[in-house]
Task: structure prediction
Amino acid sequence: MGIYTRLSEEDRNKQNPDDDSNSIQNQKTMLIQYALAQGWEIYNIYSDDDYTGSDRRRPEFNKLLSDAEAGKFDIVLCKTQSRFTRELELVEKYIHGLFPLWGIRFVSIVDNADTANKGNKKSRQINGLVNEWYLEDMSENIRSVLTNRRENGHHIGSFAPYGYKKDPDVKGHLIIDDEAAAVVKEIFTLFAQGHGKTAIARILNERGIPNPTEYKRLQGLRYKTSHNVNSRLWKYSAVADILSNEMYIGNMVQGKYGSISFKTKVCKPRPKDQWIIVEGRHEPIIDRDLWNRVQELIKLRAKPFDVGELGIFAQKVHCGYCGYVLRTNKNRGRHYLQCQTKHVSKEACVGTFMPVSELEQIVLAELNRLSEEYLDMDELERNVEFCSGIKEKREKVARNLSTYERRIDEYSKAIRDLYMDKIRGIINDNDFVELSESIRADRDRLVQMIADSQKELQELDERLRAGDNRRELILQYTNLKHLTREIVDILIDHIVIYRRDPKTKKIPVEIYWNF
Result:
């Protein structure tokens, strides 16, 4: 059997950050004693400390699921069902769906959940509903509090923006960090004097000034940084962000990103009209006159791309020496791909440079060569593994769809059982209405999941048919004279280029295809 323990709050009783908290230890002791009393053999103890019950990225949780699917044990034991998950969707997916298919029995001690006892399935579902309500209510309460604080101009981020630091005396207030603020002022001044953003980055790097990320790390802040030396350099994008940030004129700007839902930590950018901006909340670093001059210059320097919204190789080509994405520059009517790292720091990268037209011809020649080779169907069948990953994904989606369809009937039965409990007086009318509405809502959500899965199956089937008709697929891209952005997106994952060989005069190019 596998024991799973979890603690969601940051534990103050730890002597060492690597130690298990007392609560985790107590859970382990309780569960081990229970398992021994039942005569169960313990395969492993999986422990996630300082993770919420809605976090699907819990490392030990996912290891437990992997071992369960592999058949390494046949019982999962927890203190409560909420220790395993607070999401009803995962209760249905694993406890009531995949665990039975894998031959896994789920047991939680405190709330008496046991999949071997069919009579308490309803209580497990109700536990799942209550836990999900708890998550949603907690999320809404936290979001409401944070929004209110943002609207009142309080800074709630983990780190102050570059140029500022948190006021130790007033929570949510920012004060100027003199050292970093001097750099911010210089960036604005240099730009107003006519220096470009790349030139400014090069000046700062030549003087050994750490970029904002590295500066935070050097100040002792627990800020995530890359081990790549080049990640510590100033780049065009960092300078551009500073020049357009209203924080430097005293405005508190927050809410640029927002989570998709309370069930995920994934955040997406919000449109500017949804940002929360409160003017005059802290001392400005940049005066209004300089700010206005810089914004006007930014508008004047902005140039529309004359061959469409995106270059055909935009975000696709990487420098073979530093790994960074090459930027497109235009000179005398021709477009070039160029590594900017060399221009911001001569020691960081030897630099790469290539005309877009030259790379286009290389890609076209290789694509036409591949199409001629793959038109030999016998050779193609021998050398190309096409669609194996799609088939595996289709099987997984089909299994999930089957599970979802079974759950629909169970939701309907749960509502009927609740009604009988109301008739018998086990639950009152208010509880019946509340619980039945929640179950119906989850059933409706399951119906949508079924529709989404059916649509995904249809798309996967179409991709499989396209894979089986390889000749038709390749014929779309034979004897091409020019590339388009669409073709590059479909066929190419990324491209790596190096410096031109002085002997052959050719630029080494590595193309990583999507097929």
About this structure: Residues 189 and 471 are 59 Å apart (CA to CA).
